[in-house]
Amino acid sequence: MIDAGRELVVDHRIADIDIVRVCDRAGLTRRYFYQEFADIDTYLDEVFRAHAEDAAVAIIAAAVAARGDLSDRIAAGMEAAIAFVMEGFGGKGSAESTLSATAMFSRHRAALTDVAFAKALEMYKAVNGGEPMPSKLHGYTAIVVGGTAEALLRWLRGDLDLTRDELVATCVDGLGLMRSALDDTAAIQIPD
């Protein structure tokens, strides 16, 4: 049923997704829907959580796979984040689909940042032999994830007069400044 929601989010505006449409797409009854979900909002929250997990994995994979320095990896991760929001939430280039992507991202930004933050912590532990992230770095990671999500949302809304490339470059610059502010830069390791 979650897959049906993913398809519907790409094909329709969020406001047009209802229980009947979900059940028709999934080939299931409304009774089954209500056994699993309290209402359409709860269902869409679960669709988004599944989507957020996929997004976090794709963003981290893009950053890890990128060759070059940290700036190149940050840029690859930002490109993956933009693509995932624009393509994964139905942002196929039209004004209407971009508004739909923006609404979905805005509504679920907290869930996405929670998932992205958890993935960053997992990656840190994997790279650093299971050691927990130091408190200061933990705080910086929260700022980076939340700030990046806010910048992306403002760009989607049209509040930032930047091209896509300029948005990526701005985030790279900002994250580079954040990294240079760390006292213990050796703590940040990205696997090859």
Keywords:
192 residues; mainly alpha; Tetracycline Repressor, domain 2; 9 helices; 74% helix
Helix count?
9
CATH architecture: Orthogonal Bundle
Q: Helicity, in percent?
A: over 70%
Poorly predicted segments: none
User: What string gives the helices and strands in order?
Assistant: HHHHHHHHH
Summarize the structure.
This protein has 192 residues and is mainly alpha-helical.
List the helices and strands and how they pair.
Elements: H1 2-11, H2 19-26, H3 30-36, H4 40-65, H5 70-88, H6 95-107, H7 109-127, H8 135-157, H9 164-181
Helix pairs in contact: 1-2, 1-4, 4-5, 4-7, 5-6, 5-9, 7-8, 8-9
Tell me what the structure shows:
The structure is a single chain. The protein is 74% helix and 0% strand. The model has no long low-confidence stretch (mean pLDDT 77). α5 crosses α6 (95-107) and α5 (70-88) crosses α9 (164-181). It contains nine helices and no strands. The chain is globular and about 55 Å long. The chain has a single domain (40-187), classed as Tetracycline Repressor, domain 2. It has 192 residues and is mainly α. The protein has helices at 2-11, 19-26, 30-36, 40-65, 70-88, 95-107, 109-127, 135-157, 164-181.
